[in-house]
Amino acid sequence: xxxxxxxxxxxxxxxxxxxxxxxxxxxxxxxxxxxxxxxxxxxxxxxxxxxxxxxxxxxxxxxxxxxxxxxxxxxxxxxxxxxxxxxxxxxxxxxxxxxxxxxxxxxxxxxxxxxxxxxxxxxxxxxxxxxxxxxxxxxxxxxxxxxxxxxxxxxxxxxxxxxxxxxxxxxxxxxxxxxxxxxxxxxxxxxxxxxxxxxxxxxxxxxxxxxxxxxxxxxxxxxxxxxxxxxxxxxxxxxxxxxxxxxxxxxxxxxxxxxxxxxxxxxxxxxxxxxxxxxxxxxxxxxxxxxxxxxxxxxxxxxxxxxxxxxxxxxxxxxxxxxxxxxxxxxxxxxxxxxxxxxxxxxxxxxxxxxxxxxxxxxxxxxxxxxxxxxxxxxxxxxxxxxxxxxxxxxxxxxxxxxxxxxxxxxxxxxxxxxxxxxxxxxxxxxxxxxxxxxxxxxxxxxxxxxxxxxxxxxxxxxxxxxxxxxxxxxxxxxxxxxxxxxxxxxxxxx
Length: 495
What we know:
CATH topology of the largest domain: Aminopeptidase
Distance between the termini: 36 Å
Helix content: 25-40%
Shape: elongated
Structural class: alpha/beta
Number of strands: 19
Largest sheet: 8 strands, mixed
Strand content: 15-25%
CATH class of the largest domain: Alpha Beta
Number of helices: 17
Protein backbone atom coordinates (compact mmCIF):
# COMPACT_ATOMS: atom_id res chain seq x y z
CA UNK A 1 0.00 0.00 0.00
CA UNK A 2 1.26 3.46 -0.86
CA UNK A 3 1.36 5.60 2.24
CA UNK A 4 0.92 9.36 2.33
CA UNK A 5 3.93 11.04 3.90
CA UNK A 6 3.52 13.81 6.47
CA UNK A 7 3.70 17.29 5.00
CA UNK A 8 7.26 18.56 5.35
CA UNK A 9 6.39 22.17 6.14
CA UNK A 10 8.43 24.52 8.31
CA UNK A 11 7.11 27.91 9.36
CA UNK A 12 9.53 30.58 10.55
CA UNK A 13 9.21 34.20 11.56
CA UNK A 14 10.46 36.78 9.08
CA UNK A 15 14.26 36.99 9.11
CA UNK A 16 16.01 38.81 6.29
CA UNK A 17 19.39 37.38 7.31
CA UNK A 18 18.08 33.85 6.73
CA UNK A 19 17.66 34.50 3.00
CA UNK A 20 21.42 34.43 2.33
CA UNK A 21 21.74 31.07 4.13
CA UNK A 22 18.70 29.30 2.63
CA UNK A 23 19.40 26.39 0.25
CA UNK A 24 17.51 25.07 -2.75
CA UNK A 25 15.07 27.60 -4.22
CA UNK A 26 14.11 30.99 -2.83
CA UNK A 27 10.78 32.36 -4.05
CA UNK A 28 10.16 36.11 -3.95
CA UNK A 29 7.40 38.31 -5.30
CA UNK A 30 7.55 41.33 -7.61
CA UNK A 31 4.41 43.22 -8.61
CA UNK A 32 3.67 43.96 -12.29
CA UNK A 33 4.64 47.58 -11.55
CA UNK A 34 8.05 46.37 -10.38
CA UNK A 35 7.56 47.00 -6.66
CA UNK A 36 9.87 45.02 -4.35
CA UNK A 37 8.95 44.05 -0.80
CA UNK A 38 11.68 43.80 1.91
CA UNK A 39 12.42 40.16 1.00
CA UNK A 40 12.81 40.90 -2.70
CA UNK A 41 14.93 43.96 -1.89
CA UNK A 42 17.17 41.75 0.24
CA UNK A 43 17.61 39.31 -2.63
CA UNK A 44 18.23 42.19 -5.03
CA UNK A 45 20.96 43.55 -2.76
CA UNK A 46 22.60 40.14 -2.29
CA UNK A 47 22.62 39.48 -6.03
CA UNK A 48 23.92 42.96 -6.93
CA UNK A 49 20.76 44.26 -8.58
CA UNK A 50 19.66 41.16 -10.53
CA UNK A 51 15.97 41.83 -9.77
CA UNK A 52 16.33 45.45 -10.84
CA UNK A 53 17.72 44.30 -14.19
CA UNK A 54 14.94 41.74 -14.53
CA UNK A 55 12.05 44.15 -13.96
CA UNK A 56 13.51 46.67 -16.39
CA UNK A 57 13.64 44.04 -19.16
CA UNK A 58 11.17 43.66 -22.01
CA UNK A 59 10.55 40.02 -21.04
CA UNK A 60 9.28 41.08 -17.63
CA UNK A 61 7.16 43.86 -19.11
CA UNK A 62 5.48 41.49 -21.59
CA UNK A 63 5.03 38.58 -19.15
CA UNK A 64 1.59 37.69 -17.88
CA UNK A 65 0.73 37.90 -14.22
CA UNK A 66 1.72 34.69 -12.50
CA UNK A 67 4.76 34.04 -14.67
CA UNK A 68 7.97 32.79 -13.05
CA UNK A 69 11.53 33.92 -13.75
CA UNK A 70 14.59 32.02 -12.58
CA UNK A 71 18.03 33.30 -11.60
CA UNK A 72 20.47 30.40 -11.20
CA UNK A 73 23.41 30.19 -8.80
CA UNK A 74 22.94 33.73 -7.50
CA UNK A 75 25.82 35.65 -5.99
CA UNK A 76 26.26 35.71 -2.23
CA UNK A 77 23.45 33.20 -1.69
CA UNK A 78 23.61 29.57 -0.62
CA UNK A 79 20.55 28.88 -2.79
CA UNK A 80 20.95 27.38 -6.23
CA UNK A 81 18.05 29.32 -7.68
CA UNK A 82 16.02 32.47 -7.13
CA UNK A 83 12.45 32.20 -8.40
CA UNK A 84 10.84 35.58 -9.06
CA UNK A 85 7.03 35.59 -9.34
CA UNK A 86 5.38 38.44 -11.23
CA UNK A 87 2.01 38.78 -9.54
CA UNK A 88 -0.29 41.31 -7.92
CA UNK A 89 -0.27 41.21 -4.15
CA UNK A 90 -4.06 41.09 -4.01
CA UNK A 91 -4.79 38.37 -6.48
CA UNK A 92 -7.38 35.59 -6.46
CA UNK A 93 -6.86 32.38 -4.54
CA UNK A 94 -6.93 30.39 -7.78
CA UNK A 95 -4.25 32.61 -9.35
CA UNK A 96 -2.10 32.09 -6.25
CA UNK A 97 -2.67 28.33 -6.38
CA UNK A 98 -1.68 28.30 -10.06
CA UNK A 99 1.63 29.95 -9.15
CA UNK A 100 2.17 27.25 -6.52
CA UNK A 101 1.60 24.54 -9.13
CA UNK A 102 4.17 26.21 -11.41
CA UNK A 103 6.71 26.30 -8.57
CA UNK A 104 6.14 22.61 -7.83
CA UNK A 105 6.67 21.67 -11.49
CA UNK A 106 9.91 23.63 -11.61
CA UNK A 107 11.48 22.66 -8.30
CA UNK A 108 12.62 19.07 -8.76
CA UNK A 109 13.67 17.77 -5.35
CA UNK A 110 15.07 21.05 -4.04
CA UNK A 111 14.09 22.68 -0.80
CA UNK A 112 11.89 25.76 -1.13
CA UNK A 113 11.93 28.97 0.89
CA UNK A 114 8.79 31.04 0.35
CA UNK A 115 9.83 34.61 1.17
CA UNK A 116 6.60 36.31 0.12
CA UNK A 117 6.04 38.77 2.94
CA UNK A 118 2.38 39.56 3.62
CA UNK A 119 1.08 37.94 0.41
CA UNK A 120 -2.63 37.43 1.29
CA UNK A 121 -3.10 34.09 -0.48
CA UNK A 122 0.07 32.45 0.76
CA UNK A 123 -1.82 29.36 1.97
CA UNK A 124 -3.37 28.90 -1.49
CA UNK A 125 0.04 29.17 -3.12
CA UNK A 126 1.26 26.47 -0.73
CA UNK A 127 -1.79 24.37 -1.63
CA UNK A 128 -0.78 24.54 -5.30
CA UNK A 129 2.72 23.34 -4.43
CA UNK A 130 1.64 20.41 -2.27
CA UNK A 131 -1.16 19.25 -4.62
CA UNK A 132 1.28 19.13 -7.54
CA UNK A 133 4.10 17.55 -5.50
CA UNK A 134 2.87 14.02 -6.19
CA UNK A 135 4.24 10.88 -7.80
CA UNK A 136 2.93 7.36 -8.08
CA UNK A 137 6.04 5.34 -8.83
CA UNK A 138 6.03 2.56 -6.23
CA UNK A 139 6.10 -0.13 -8.92
CA UNK A 140 9.23 1.27 -10.57
CA UNK A 141 12.65 -0.11 -9.67
CA UNK A 142 14.05 3.42 -9.39
CA UNK A 143 11.10 4.80 -7.42
CA UNK A 144 11.75 8.26 -6.02
CA UNK A 145 11.62 8.85 -2.30
CA UNK A 146 10.91 12.53 -2.89
CA UNK A 147 7.17 12.57 -3.36
CA UNK A 148 3.99 13.00 -1.41
CA UNK A 149 5.09 16.00 0.59
CA UNK A 150 8.65 14.96 1.35
CA UNK A 151 10.11 18.16 -0.09
CA UNK A 152 10.93 20.67 2.61
CA UNK A 153 8.89 23.86 2.23
CA UNK A 154 9.89 26.71 4.53
CA UNK A 155 7.40 29.55 4.85
CA UNK A 156 8.74 32.86 6.12
CA UNK A 157 5.99 35.04 7.51
CA UNK A 158 5.47 37.93 9.92
CA UNK A 159 2.60 36.04 11.54
CA UNK A 160 3.57 32.36 11.97
CA UNK A 161 0.72 31.77 14.41
CA UNK A 162 -1.93 32.72 11.86
CA UNK A 163 -0.34 30.63 9.12
CA UNK A 164 -0.06 27.67 11.49
CA UNK A 165 -3.79 27.86 12.13
CA UNK A 166 -4.42 27.30 8.40
CA UNK A 167 -2.10 24.33 8.00
CA UNK A 168 -4.40 21.55 9.36
CA UNK A 169 -6.98 22.22 6.65
CA UNK A 170 -4.23 22.29 4.00
CA UNK A 171 -2.98 18.91 5.20
CA UNK A 172 -6.51 17.48 5.30
CA UNK A 173 -7.23 18.49 1.71
CA UNK A 174 -3.87 17.25 0.42
CA UNK A 175 -4.24 13.90 2.18
CA UNK A 176 -7.79 13.41 0.91
CA UNK A 177 -6.79 14.22 -2.67
CA UNK A 178 -3.72 11.98 -2.46
CA UNK A 179 -5.78 9.10 -1.05
CA UNK A 180 -8.11 9.37 -4.04
CA UNK A 181 -5.20 9.53 -6.50
CA UNK A 182 -3.44 6.57 -4.90
CA UNK A 183 -6.56 4.41 -5.08
CA UNK A 184 -7.23 5.27 -8.73
CA UNK A 185 -3.59 4.75 -9.76
CA UNK A 186 -3.39 1.26 -8.22
CA UNK A 187 -3.52 -1.69 -10.65
CA UNK A 188 -6.53 -3.96 -10.35
CA UNK A 189 -4.51 -7.07 -9.45
CA UNK A 190 -3.56 -5.21 -6.26
CA UNK A 191 -6.72 -3.22 -5.60
CA UNK A 192 -9.26 -6.01 -5.56
CA UNK A 193 -12.63 -5.50 -3.92
CA UNK A 194 -11.25 -7.11 -0.75
CA UNK A 195 -8.13 -4.94 -0.71
CA UNK A 196 -10.19 -1.81 -1.41
CA UNK A 197 -12.48 -2.58 1.52
CA UNK A 198 -9.47 -3.27 3.73
CA UNK A 199 -7.96 0.13 2.92
CA UNK A 200 -11.23 1.87 3.66
CA UNK A 201 -11.35 0.09 7.02
CA UNK A 202 -8.15 1.95 7.92
CA UNK A 203 -10.12 5.21 7.84
CA UNK A 204 -11.60 4.18 11.18
CA UNK A 205 -8.35 5.51 12.70
CA UNK A 206 -9.60 9.00 11.75
CA UNK A 207 -12.86 8.58 13.67
CA UNK A 208 -14.90 7.42 10.68
CA UNK A 209 -17.31 4.58 11.42
CA UNK A 210 -16.81 1.77 8.89
CA UNK A 211 -19.39 -0.90 8.10
CA UNK A 212 -18.96 -3.56 5.41
CA UNK A 213 -21.88 -5.49 3.93
CA UNK A 214 -20.96 -8.79 2.31
CA UNK A 215 -22.71 -10.64 -0.52
CA UNK A 216 -25.12 -12.49 1.80
CA UNK A 217 -26.12 -9.14 3.31
CA UNK A 218 -26.65 -7.65 -0.14
CA UNK A 219 -28.69 -10.67 -1.22
CA UNK A 220 -30.92 -10.38 1.85
CA UNK A 221 -31.47 -6.71 1.05
CA UNK A 222 -32.54 -7.56 -2.50
CA UNK A 223 -29.59 -5.83 -4.22
CA UNK A 224 -29.80 -8.10 -7.24
CA UNK A 225 -28.82 -5.41 -9.76
CA UNK A 226 -25.58 -4.79 -7.86
CA UNK A 227 -24.86 -8.50 -7.37
CA UNK A 228 -25.55 -9.28 -11.01
CA UNK A 229 -22.61 -7.13 -12.09
CA UNK A 230 -20.17 -9.11 -9.98
CA UNK A 231 -21.45 -12.65 -10.50
CA UNK A 232 -18.87 -13.39 -13.19
CA UNK A 233 -15.91 -12.52 -10.97
CA UNK A 234 -14.14 -14.41 -8.20
CA UNK A 235 -13.84 -11.10 -6.30
CA UNK A 236 -16.83 -10.70 -3.99
CA UNK A 237 -19.17 -7.71 -4.11
CA UNK A 238 -18.96 -5.46 -1.07
CA UNK A 239 -20.79 -2.39 0.13
CA UNK A 240 -18.64 -0.19 2.37
CA UNK A 241 -20.39 2.46 4.48
CA UNK A 242 -18.27 5.29 5.89
CA UNK A 243 -19.97 7.56 8.43
CA UNK A 244 -18.53 10.85 9.62
CA UNK A 245 -20.77 12.31 12.34
CA UNK A 246 -19.09 15.57 13.25
CA UNK A 247 -22.36 17.26 14.15
CA UNK A 248 -24.24 14.42 15.75
CA UNK A 249 -27.01 16.60 17.16
CA UNK A 250 -27.89 17.95 13.72
CA UNK A 251 -30.42 16.15 11.54
CA UNK A 252 -28.95 17.49 8.28
CA UNK A 253 -27.23 14.59 6.53
CA UNK A 254 -25.46 14.41 3.18
CA UNK A 255 -24.94 11.03 1.53
CA UNK A 256 -22.20 10.47 -1.04
CA UNK A 257 -22.43 7.38 -3.24
CA UNK A 258 -19.52 6.13 -5.31
CA UNK A 259 -19.19 3.59 -8.11
CA UNK A 260 -16.43 1.17 -7.20
CA UNK A 261 -15.89 -1.13 -10.20
CA UNK A 262 -12.29 -2.16 -9.53
CA UNK A 263 -11.96 -3.42 -13.11
CA UNK A 264 -14.41 -3.29 -15.97
CA UNK A 265 -13.98 -5.66 -18.90
CA UNK A 266 -17.49 -4.88 -20.07
CA UNK A 267 -18.53 -8.38 -19.03
CA UNK A 268 -20.09 -10.47 -21.80
CA UNK A 269 -20.50 -7.21 -23.78
CA UNK A 270 -16.70 -7.17 -23.89
CA UNK A 271 -14.86 -3.89 -24.41
CA UNK A 272 -12.29 -3.56 -27.22
CA UNK A 273 -8.76 -4.51 -26.13
CA UNK A 274 -7.33 -1.09 -26.99
CA UNK A 275 -7.54 1.09 -23.92
CA UNK A 276 -9.02 -1.54 -21.64
CA UNK A 277 -6.03 -1.10 -19.33
CA UNK A 278 -7.51 2.26 -18.34
CA UNK A 279 -10.45 0.50 -16.72
CA UNK A 280 -8.44 0.22 -13.53
CA UNK A 281 -9.88 3.71 -12.88
CA UNK A 282 -13.51 2.61 -13.02
CA UNK A 283 -13.65 2.78 -9.23
CA UNK A 284 -12.91 6.53 -9.38
CA UNK A 285 -16.24 7.53 -7.85
CA UNK A 286 -15.62 5.34 -4.81
CA UNK A 287 -12.10 6.76 -4.50
CA UNK A 288 -13.42 10.33 -4.46
CA UNK A 289 -15.97 9.47 -1.77
CA UNK A 290 -13.19 7.96 0.36
CA UNK A 291 -11.00 11.04 -0.16
CA UNK A 292 -13.81 13.40 0.85
CA UNK A 293 -14.59 11.45 4.03
CA UNK A 294 -10.89 11.41 4.94
CA UNK A 295 -10.65 15.17 4.41
CA UNK A 296 -13.73 15.89 6.53
CA UNK A 297 -12.43 13.71 9.34
CA UNK A 298 -8.92 15.16 9.28
CA UNK A 299 -10.17 18.72 9.51
CA UNK A 300 -12.85 17.66 12.02
CA UNK A 301 -15.69 19.06 9.98
CA UNK A 302 -18.82 19.85 12.07
CA UNK A 303 -21.04 17.98 9.60
CA UNK A 304 -22.80 14.66 9.16
CA UNK A 305 -21.78 12.89 5.97
CA UNK A 306 -22.19 9.22 5.04
CA UNK A 307 -20.28 7.77 2.12
CA UNK A 308 -21.40 4.50 0.51
CA UNK A 309 -19.34 2.71 -2.14
CA UNK A 310 -20.32 -0.37 -4.10
CA UNK A 311 -17.20 -2.48 -4.79
CA UNK A 312 -17.41 -5.00 -7.60
CA UNK A 313 -15.51 -6.42 -10.57
CA UNK A 314 -17.17 -6.87 -13.98
CA UNK A 315 -15.74 -9.98 -15.64
CA UNK A 316 -16.85 -12.42 -18.38
CA UNK A 317 -17.13 -16.05 -17.32
CA UNK A 318 -19.47 -18.99 -17.27
CA UNK A 319 -21.35 -17.40 -14.40
CA UNK A 320 -21.38 -13.85 -15.77
CA UNK A 321 -24.53 -11.84 -16.35
CA UNK A 322 -25.79 -12.03 -19.94
CA UNK A 323 -27.35 -9.44 -22.23
CA UNK A 324 -31.07 -10.10 -22.03
CA UNK A 325 -31.06 -11.07 -18.36
CA UNK A 326 -33.72 -9.48 -16.17
CA UNK A 327 -32.89 -8.61 -12.57
CA UNK A 328 -34.96 -7.17 -9.76
CA UNK A 329 -33.53 -4.12 -8.00
CA UNK A 330 -33.72 -3.38 -4.29
CA UNK A 331 -36.40 -0.81 -5.06
CA UNK A 332 -38.48 -3.57 -6.65
CA UNK A 333 -38.24 -2.42 -10.27
CA UNK A 334 -37.17 -5.03 -12.81
CA UNK A 335 -34.30 -4.19 -15.16
CA UNK A 336 -33.61 -5.71 -18.56
CA UNK A 337 -29.85 -5.85 -19.03
CA UNK A 338 -29.31 -4.90 -22.66
CA UNK A 339 -25.57 -4.27 -22.33
CA UNK A 340 -23.41 -5.68 -19.52
CA UNK A 341 -20.94 -2.84 -20.09
CA UNK A 342 -23.52 -0.43 -18.70
CA UNK A 343 -22.82 -1.93 -15.31
CA UNK A 344 -22.08 1.11 -13.12
CA UNK A 345 -25.71 2.25 -13.08
CA UNK A 346 -26.75 -1.25 -11.93
CA UNK A 347 -24.42 -0.94 -8.95
CA UNK A 348 -25.43 2.62 -8.14
CA UNK A 349 -29.20 2.13 -8.35
CA UNK A 350 -29.18 -0.38 -5.50
CA UNK A 351 -26.67 1.50 -3.36
CA UNK A 352 -28.52 4.80 -3.85
CA UNK A 353 -31.84 3.22 -2.90
CA UNK A 354 -30.30 1.66 0.20
CA UNK A 355 -28.75 5.02 1.16
CA UNK A 356 -32.16 6.72 0.99
CA UNK A 357 -34.04 3.95 2.79
CA UNK A 358 -31.60 3.65 5.66
CA UNK A 359 -30.22 7.17 6.17
CA UNK A 360 -33.07 9.40 4.87
CA UNK A 361 -30.58 12.06 3.77
CA UNK A 362 -31.18 15.77 3.33
CA UNK A 363 -29.34 15.51 0.00
CA UNK A 364 -27.51 12.90 -2.07
CA UNK A 365 -24.61 13.15 -4.51
CA UNK A 366 -23.32 10.21 -6.52
CA UNK A 367 -20.04 10.08 -8.43
CA UNK A 368 -19.13 7.62 -11.14
CA UNK A 369 -16.89 7.08 -14.11
CA UNK A 370 -20.17 6.21 -15.76
CA UNK A 371 -20.03 6.84 -19.51
CA UNK A 372 -17.64 7.38 -22.37
CA UNK A 373 -20.37 9.59 -23.80
CA UNK A 374 -19.62 12.33 -21.27
CA UNK A 375 -16.07 12.51 -22.64
CA UNK A 376 -17.49 12.98 -26.13
CA UNK A 377 -19.66 15.81 -24.77
CA UNK A 378 -17.26 17.59 -22.41
CA UNK A 379 -13.79 16.19 -23.06
CA UNK A 380 -11.43 16.08 -20.10
CA UNK A 381 -12.10 19.62 -18.92
CA UNK A 382 -15.42 19.21 -17.13
CA UNK A 383 -17.36 16.63 -15.22
CA UNK A 384 -21.02 16.29 -16.22
CA UNK A 385 -23.66 17.19 -13.62
CA UNK A 386 -27.26 15.98 -13.68
CA UNK A 387 -29.78 16.91 -11.04
CA UNK A 388 -33.39 17.00 -9.92
CA UNK A 389 -32.77 20.07 -7.75
CA UNK A 390 -31.58 23.49 -8.94
CA UNK A 391 -30.33 24.63 -5.54
CA UNK A 392 -28.12 21.60 -4.88
CA UNK A 393 -26.80 21.52 -8.43
CA UNK A 394 -25.93 25.22 -8.31
CA UNK A 395 -24.13 24.73 -4.99
CA UNK A 396 -22.03 21.92 -6.47
CA UNK A 397 -21.25 24.07 -9.52
CA UNK A 398 -20.31 27.01 -7.29
CA UNK A 399 -18.02 24.79 -5.21
CA UNK A 400 -16.38 23.31 -8.30
CA UNK A 401 -15.81 26.75 -9.78
CA UNK A 402 -14.26 28.03 -6.54
CA UNK A 403 -11.76 25.13 -6.58
CA UNK A 404 -11.04 25.28 -10.32
CA UNK A 405 -12.46 21.79 -10.86
CA UNK A 406 -14.40 21.96 -14.10
CA UNK A 407 -18.09 21.00 -14.06
CA UNK A 408 -21.01 21.56 -16.42
CA UNK A 409 -24.73 20.91 -15.96
CA UNK A 410 -26.36 18.57 -18.45
CA UNK A 411 -30.11 18.15 -19.11
CA UNK A 412 -32.61 15.61 -17.88
CA UNK A 413 -36.26 15.17 -18.85
CA UNK A 414 -39.13 12.83 -19.71
CA UNK A 415 -38.09 12.56 -23.37
CA UNK A 416 -34.81 10.97 -22.30
CA UNK A 417 -36.49 8.68 -19.77
CA UNK A 418 -38.77 7.33 -22.50
CA UNK A 419 -35.71 5.86 -24.22
CA UNK A 420 -35.31 3.43 -21.30
CA UNK A 421 -38.69 1.71 -21.75
CA UNK A 422 -38.41 -2.05 -21.97
CA UNK A 423 -40.79 -4.49 -23.67
CA UNK A 424 -40.12 -7.16 -21.04
CA UNK A 425 -39.24 -5.33 -17.81
CA UNK A 426 -39.97 -2.07 -16.00
CA UNK A 427 -36.83 -0.49 -17.44
CA UNK A 428 -33.78 -1.36 -19.54
CA UNK A 429 -30.24 -0.33 -18.61
CA UNK A 430 -29.34 1.53 -21.82
CA UNK A 431 -31.29 3.85 -24.07
CA UNK A 432 -29.32 3.54 -27.28
CA UNK A 433 -26.38 5.40 -28.73
CA UNK A 434 -27.87 8.90 -28.64
CA UNK A 435 -27.50 10.97 -25.45
CA UNK A 436 -25.67 8.13 -23.71
CA UNK A 437 -24.58 10.06 -20.62
CA UNK A 438 -28.06 11.62 -20.25
CA UNK A 439 -29.96 8.33 -20.46
CA UNK A 440 -27.51 6.86 -17.92
CA UNK A 441 -28.41 9.70 -15.54
CA UNK A 442 -32.08 9.26 -16.38
CA UNK A 443 -31.77 5.61 -15.36
CA UNK A 444 -30.34 6.64 -11.97
CA UNK A 445 -33.04 9.27 -11.51
CA UNK A 446 -35.65 6.49 -11.44
CA UNK A 447 -34.04 5.32 -8.19
CA UNK A 448 -34.11 8.71 -6.50
CA UNK A 449 -37.06 9.54 -4.27
CA UNK A 450 -38.74 12.76 -5.48
CA UNK A 451 -38.26 14.53 -2.14
CA UNK A 452 -34.47 13.96 -2.08
CA UNK A 453 -32.30 16.68 -3.68
CA UNK A 454 -29.84 14.73 -5.85
CA UNK A 455 -26.87 15.38 -8.09
CA UNK A 456 -25.22 12.77 -10.30
CA UNK A 457 -21.64 13.57 -11.34
CA UNK A 458 -20.17 11.70 -14.29
CA UNK A 459 -16.40 11.93 -13.78
CA UNK A 460 -15.32 9.61 -16.60
CA UNK A 461 -13.42 12.41 -18.35
CA UNK A 462 -11.79 14.02 -15.32
CA UNK A 463 -10.92 11.22 -12.88
CA UNK A 464 -7.79 10.25 -14.82
CA UNK A 465 -6.07 12.04 -17.69
CA UNK A 466 -3.28 11.20 -20.12
CA UNK A 467 -1.73 14.63 -19.68
CA UNK A 468 -1.20 16.78 -16.61
CA UNK A 469 -4.22 18.55 -15.15
CA UNK A 470 -4.41 21.83 -13.25
CA UNK A 471 -3.29 20.34 -9.92
CA UNK A 472 -1.76 16.97 -10.82
CA UNK A 473 0.67 15.20 -13.13
CA UNK A 474 -0.69 12.77 -15.74
CA UNK A 475 -2.79 10.01 -14.18
CA UNK A 476 -5.32 10.22 -11.39
CA UNK A 477 -6.37 13.82 -10.68
CA UNK A 478 -8.28 13.60 -7.41
CA UNK A 479 -11.07 15.63 -9.04
CA UNK A 480 -14.00 16.18 -6.74
CA UNK A 481 -12.42 15.98 -3.29
CA UNK A 482 -11.99 19.74 -3.02
CA UNK A 483 -15.35 20.43 -4.66
CA UNK A 484 -17.33 18.24 -2.29
CA UNK A 485 -15.35 19.39 0.74
CA UNK A 486 -16.28 22.96 -0.19
CA UNK A 487 -19.91 21.91 -0.76
CA UNK A 488 -20.01 20.50 2.76
CA UNK A 489 -18.28 23.56 4.21
CA UNK A 490 -20.73 25.93 2.53
CA UNK A 491 -23.96 24.05 3.18
CA UNK A 492 -23.77 21.18 5.67
CA UNK A 493 -21.59 22.36 8.54
CA UNK A 494 -23.03 23.52 11.82
CA UNK A 495 -21.48 25.54 14.59
